[in-house]
Input
Amino acid sequence: MENNDRRKFIKKVGIGAAAIGAGIASSAVPAIAKKQKTYNWKMVTTWPPHFPMLGEGADNLAKWIDEMSGGRLKITVYGGGELVPPLGVFDAVSQGTVEMGHGAAYYWAGKSPATQFFAAVPFGFNAQSLNAWLYSGGGMKIWEELYAKFNLKPFIAGNTGVQMGGWFNKKIDAMSDLKGLKMRIPGLGGKVLAKAGGNAVLVAGGEIYTNLDRGVIDATEWVGPYHDLKMGFYKAAKYYYYPGWHELGTGLEAMVNLNAWNTLPDDLKAIVEAATYRSNIWMLSEFEAKNNAALRELIDVHKVQLKKFPEAVLKGLKKLSKEVVEEVAAADPMSRKAYDSFLKFQKNVYEWNKITEEPYQQLKYL
Ligand code: CA
Output
């Protein structure tokens, strides 16, 4: 009996192989011709050229796609301002001026407020949960639906991990200390600060230090110790607060013009997608590996005072954050859709993390 089954199986495999062989013979020429075509793309970014980790992430993404495709998809990377202004990336890729872009989805809140759910939500996901929502929890589908309206295909291509709360020259002991505070803090976090009576301002990266040093702004957030050390903020502010309640795991994005995407053969599409996965894990790993050494330097060498926001302040900010995000979700259908999915997944993942990640924090080896 067994032998008989095995023989039948071998026979089927044989027929299958013959059929596949026939397929190759009849369609080999066009498939190979398409595969041999070389594509030359441009990628514009919101980062200064080769900016540590973020701009490097864009450079690596292009390099890995080149390597994996055997040079069939070549992407030239442009820093912000080299080809289009940093905040012109979305339009340039959407309109097909260039094929690809690299940035963070919350920069495009003016195009659609829903974009913010795919970068950072105050008191929202960390990197692990954002990835789980996007890759396995339905988030990516909503992001694709949103970006398709702009003729774009999005990919998650990096993450900063938990950011820092920012640099201050006065102590934040209570919510009342945020009143009148002029702080550089973008996105939803800025809206929360405004609700707390503060004054959220947008300052381009290159001007933050000077503004802080001259007292044009009272406080600023940026990223985390690795970047903040390079920016020299410790020379202009003495208190370094944590945690970065407003950006607990900010996702970085790559985007491709849909017309350009549709010209690619399937293997190159798979390569682009695989390279974004690599980029995503590479960037988060860089942040996790390098931030603490920079923090030690800030504290030990530059005598920065590390401070945690008091519980009452975090509680107050959390309440206001919920109000802000609810208002965004109420304003348009795609934001509603993204927020509903976000909330459902947050409940799912928080329940699980309560008996996994939370106890893990008590089981530390050291
Ligand atoms: Ca930030």
Summary: Residues 163, 221-223, 247 surround calcium ion (CB under 6 Å). The first strand starts at residue 39 and ends at 45. Confidence is low (pLDDT under 50) at residues 12-26.
